[in-house]
Amino acid sequence: MSGGSRGIGLAIAKAAAAKGANVAIAAKTAEPHPKLPGTVFTAADEINAAGAGQALGLLCDIRDEQQVEEAISRTVETFGGIDICINNASAVSLTGTAETSMKRYDLMNEVNTRGTYLVSRTALPYLAAAEQAHILNLSPPLDMNPKWFKKHVAYTIAKYGMSMCVLGMAEEFRDRQIAVNALWPLTAIDTAAVRNVIGDDQMALMCRKPSIMADAAMAIFSRDPANCTGNFFIDEEVLREEGVTDFSAYQQEGATRLMADFFVPDEVFERSPTHVVHGID
Q1: DSSP annotation of 17
Q2: Whole-angstrom Cα distance, residue 248 to residue 184?
Q3: Could you give phi then psi for residue 130, rounded to 5 degrees?
Q4: SS3 category, 273
Q5: Which of 102, 158, 201, 275 is the most buried (most CB within 10 A)?
């Protein structure tokens, strides 16, 4: 997994470990951040405590090809192979064109799009040897509504780049039976980024917990790669397909409404029985 020292990535890693999976976390946070909890090492400790699986914490900047190659080599040396590749690492800046420096533009595209491509490409030989191989990108449906571009063109380009990897690689790897899918939340998710970058603690009350994304990811990984590829999954829809009807466990205590996440197409809201207000668009 790229990233994963906190938030949704860590929740998915802990859920996988609880089911007995070994998990390698490739992240660049070595020292605690004043506003963002967790490092690659504390994440590994939490994963180890979560279940039967073992965790390997790897310091890695996924913009660096050599570091990615070394991280994947160490993963294979430690665990014997790779069955699942999760592209979770992401950089975000919700700024307009005039306010987004080229340094920030490059960062988002290097981490989001290029990093996803690089990690997937480097893991490919090992995924091809796995019995049930999955690539999962935490990226949105490719909804070309201008409203997703007008306020933060650079971020949308970078995030949609991850989804374009799904679109292309799913077809490219179909004959190899390597599933390539995207997963995105219907609602905003309570993470450090939401509390510190996008909103605050009050906004977090309108967000679901990261565990909904973890449970949805586990459901996807249980599906046959030969018949489950090229999908842009929404977390709630995945779980409804699994028979879940009560989503209260994912809601914050005291929450009275839920706020939609970025990039969720209008037709998804139309078919969802959950009442979600359009707060992030």
Answers
A1: H
A2: 19
A3: -85, 155
A4: coil
A5: 158
Collapsing DSSP to helix, strand or coil, 187 comes out as: strand
* The two structure tokens encoding residue 156: 């949308």
The answer to whether residue 126 is catalytic is: no
Which residue is listed with tokens 């909904």?
212
Which residues make beta-bridge pairs with 184?
Answer: 234
Residue 276: strand pairing partners:
258
The dihedrals phi and psi of 10, each to the nearest 5 degrees, come to: -65, -40
Give, in degrees to the nearest 5, the angle at Cα 12 between 9 and 18. 140
Among the listed residues 105, 117, 126, 155, the single catalytic one is 155
pLDDT tens digits, 84-128: 999 999 999 999 999 999 999 999 999 999 999 999 999 999 999
Residue count of the chain:
281
Prediction pTM value: 0.94
C-alpha span between 10 and 249 (Å, rounded): 18
- Distance of alpha carbon 19 from alpha carbon 42, whole angstroms: 20
User: What is the rounded CA–CA span in Å between residue 59 and residue 40?
Assistant: 7
Residue type, 28: K
